[in-house]
Amino acid sequence: MTAEKPEPQQDVASQEQIVTSNMIQHEALVRLLLKKGIIDREEYLGEVKSVTRELLERQAK
To answer: What is the pLDDT of residue 9?
Structure first.
């Protein structure tokens, strides 16, 4: 008699759940930083552009 293995979706979070969780956490962190005046919107958007550019350059190599 062999034990039945649970479906992979049952024992591990799906990729969509992980992405959604990361997105929610990121948004909450950005909102707090903005609300507390630690960063401003332009600074944040500039950094997003900079990081995006860097990652795209690495992928092109």
So the answer is: 55
